[in-house]
Amino acid sequence: MATAVTSVPLTVRETGGVDRKGWPVTSGIPLPDGKIEAEAIRTGHFRIVDAAGKEVPSQAEVAATWGIYPTGSNGFAKWVHVTFLADVTAGGASEYRLEYGADVRNATRTGLIVAEKDKSVTVTTGRGVGAIKVVISKEKCNVLDEVYLDVDGDGFSEKDRIIAPREAANLWVGYDFNRAAINANRPEVVVEQAGPVMAVVRIKTKMDRRFESVVRLFIYAGSPCVRVQETLIHGPTGQNRSATQPQAVVMKGHVLELPIRTDAGGAVATVGVGEALPEPARFAGESVQLADAKRVALEQDLVHECKPNNIDDNGLSKAFNYALYAGSEKIGQGQRSPGWIDLSDNRWGVTAAVRYFWQSFPKRLVAEPGAVRLEHWAEGTQL
Fold it and tell me: How far from chain centre, in Å, is Cα 42?
């Protein structure tokens, strides 16, 4: 173990045009051989400090250690995944440092609680206004099956439940003439990390004979933000097939639908519009009363036409296209959407965003009274 304090400078840049307060940041950081043992990282001989030298809440996981094949690891940390809570102004940058060594101790204390029982895992992000409680069932799985949001600071009760369990699957895949659902079988639920800054819960489910879904929920201390990461595995899933045997399918949909408890008469859908390129990005929000439109949809490249020399004056492809609909009426269009949608009433709401939205088409985001639907592969489309 190193006896001196070593530091690594970190810069966090904000590119979405929104002030970030206590925003979760995860970064992979390489460390030199022989500097600090993996066990020292695991036992808290590290911390993150801001530009003024003040410690901010953080946690770390050793992703790889040094060593030479075939003798194996020498015990020193090679790569560390660090998660911390950052403050960054809109369009700005903030400086932080990773400090590690024998004389460093992590003093992070948060209100993040992970409680595991026989039938469920419950993650609570803290106390007070904006805290959330997420319940993951071990018996019948839907993604974000049950979520509570404390809007008035008096803790969690039935009135704070913004997403309630339902029988129907809320994540499914459409292919060929079939539909595979996430709640078809009992899930395997594993708590991979339990704080103090971030909890990670893995949910693995066999959907049918062709598909498996592995969902990871990333839930953060003091934050109402939940990151959902899914790995969709296409066969073989326990079948007696070799990797050389093709199992081609025609994709027709890949959907996550979240039932949101909102006032149908006062619900408003707001959708991100503007352009991601050329930089700097130009984004805004377009709002629609759902009492009038009933359905709002953002569609990215349901048809993508690639043509020779289809380039604009900035050297960018003109093949990308998106459209915004209120009911059946097109109310907006562009090329590269920011890929977010919000459903809210006068009490609360949910904002959903899809990373790499315009790059990984065909995509669709839908808001309806009582539901937000993220179509990772837009239903009914084939490329």
Answer: 25
